[in-house]
Fold this protein.
Amino acid sequence: MVLEATMIVLDNSESSRNGDYVPSRWEAQADAVNLIFSAKTQANPESSVGLMNMAGKGPEMLVTLTTDFGKLLDGMHRTKIRGSTHLATAIQIAGLALKHRQNKSQRQRIIVFTCSPIDEDEKNLVKLARKMKKNNVSIDFIAFGDLDPENTKKLEAFNENIKGGDGSHLEVIPPGPSLLSDHIISTPILAGEGVAPRGGENGGDAGGDAGGGGFDFGVDPSADPELALALRMSMEEEKARQEKEGKAGEAAKEPTLEGIPEEGGSSESQPLLNADGEASGTADAPVSKPEVGEKKDKEHQGMDKMETDRDDTKDRDNMDTD
């Protein structure tokens, strides 16, 4: 297990207010700090983490190297979003903090978040990188937000000149629906530090565990229950949304039976025998209007015949009398 002292440098410039990363650039960094601290301390309980920012009038040391995550949270809460960044100065101050660490057996590492334009020129950054390499300081950059080609070129030049045995990495993370911390989990920055790369990366099997140590998302719920719960809820909400859309699509494809009359109409509900024991549908069957008319016509015809016969009888009687 790697024993390390890590200084995290945050970008608290005005650019960090942007909401192109969930839920915002600043809050995405806060979530990532939680993940990095958990990974470092899980890999080795004696590892320590410090925190500082680099925007405003000048860089500010928020929390010196510590193993207490509560102090890091307090430092995050004290941070104000303001001005532009001072990248080179922040790296130098972070290097001094690492130089004065109490446990000299700890390896030195700086993790820098940058989401705003870099004002320093490439030449000075290269000079600083070589100095840090000489002092055995590894520096990881997490570039997101402002991914201007000029910014990226400067960071690549810095990274090329500081690479050493302990490894320094540059990760460029474009905006998207996923959390910034989800991307960091799968990078070499945290690989082997209590959080393993996701399945399918760095030679891993596709569909492997999302986090190291057998923990979901690479986070130990006992060490960081809030982050583990937030990540799990996000996954469950997405799963529920996909299931809902799937059911809606299946329902749209199924034929509907509404409006189709049942065979035989309502006669199927009629009893076979009526109250008199006769077959239903005969004597009790309703008489249609044409049948009623025919019956009346027959009655009239019968009456007319009777009157005709009566008249014939009277005529014969009169003839006999004569």
In short: The first helix runs from residue 25 to 43. The helical segments are 25-43, 69-78, 87-99, 122-134, 149-162, 180-185, 225-253, 289-321. Strands lie at 4-10, 48-53, 60-66, 107-114, 137-144, 170-173.
